[in-house]
Amino acid sequence: MQNLTELQTNGTSHRSLSVIIKVCVVIPFFCIFLCCIAVMLHIFASQRQFLDTSRYILFAYMLVNDTLQLMTSVLLFLFVMGQVKFSLVYCVPLLLISTVTFQNTPLILATMSLERYIAIIYPLRRPASWRSDRIWIIILSLWFISCIFPVIDFSIGKHDPAVDVLSTPVLCKNTVVNPSPIQTLIRAAVNVLFFAVVAVIILFTYVTILLETRKLRQDKVSVNKAMHTVLLHGFQLLLCVLAFTHPITESLIVLHANWQPEDVAFFNYFCFILIPRFLSPLIYGFRDQSIRGCIRKTFFSCSKKVKPWS
């Protein structure tokens, strides 16, 4: 009996230590991401040149979207790690925001690629909706499209009848709110459809701009920059697609390593969801010469204001 109690105590201590380590790994990453995003959004708000360019407005929108996505996913991660339970009325909005922003990211990448395509192919006849003062129409359309499937999914979802929406505390996970295998399959199919359509759009814009470079004898620098930008969006999409690799990685880890299920889930979350979402906007932001120059000036001015201790 005493040995059994000691084993239970050791198991509980090990799980507690594991949770603390995981939280200590995730939180610093998230804080660094927030600091970088805050600097870039401050630059956008303070520099008029960015607010007058559709491409930069879309990029700022992507920053806000990815921040919301990471914020909700980190909150849900912390709740699951701490085994925090609360009613569905609070859980569903968090899951809805996380799902909508997840699906919104590939749509933003497709829109940014199309913006480069239109800027190169129709430089003097740009449609009104793609101008900086009308781009909000496209942004609202992206939100609407991203919300359709998650809202339907959560509306028709059948949770456990014993669970009261207002009072019964549950672990906030998609499998708890929508346990139906059919809905899980439909959700996966919708995500694959989103990413497949975006991949086709990015490939189409890249090939079209590539063909355009052969026709133009002047201003090839702008066309080449646009082509490299679209290629970068393809790489960003690839980073997002890593989120779908978790069934494969789970199978490989289970076959070749004796890991606990929660450790496997954390590995997948950190490597294939958190890090790609962390890197994607930062790579694009630091690659752009205008943004990079403003970031350098911002950090330089901040370092001058910090006076050393006498």
Characterise the protein shown here.
By secondary structure, the protein is mainly alpha-helical. The chain has helices at residues 2-46, 48-51, 54-81, 88-121, 135-156, 174-177, 181-215, 220-241, 246-256, 261-287, 289-305; strands spanning 85-86, 170-171. It has a two-stranded antiparallel ribbon. Helix 4 (88-121) packs antiparallel against helix 5 (135-156). The protein is globular and about 65 Å long. The mean pLDDT is 79.
Which terms would index this structure?
310 residues, mainly alpha, two-stranded antiparallel sheet, 2 strands, globular
Fold topology:
Layout: H1 2-46, H2 48-51, H3 54-81, E1 85-86, H4 88-121, H5 135-156, E2 170-171, H6 174-177, H7 181-215, H8 220-241, H9 246-256, H10 261-287, H11 289-305
Helix pairs in contact: 1-3, 1-10, 3-4, 3-10, 4-5, 4-7, 4-8, 7-8, 8-10, 9-10
Mass-distribution shape: globular
Structural class: mainly alpha
Radius of gyration, CA atoms, in whole angstroms: 23 Å
Terminal-residue CA separation: 63 Å
Main sheet, how many strands, which sense, barrel? 2 strands, antiparallel
Q: Please give the count of helices.
A: 11
- Number of DSSP E strands: 2
The percent range for helix content is over 70%
Q: Spatial order of the strands in the main sheet?
A: 1-2
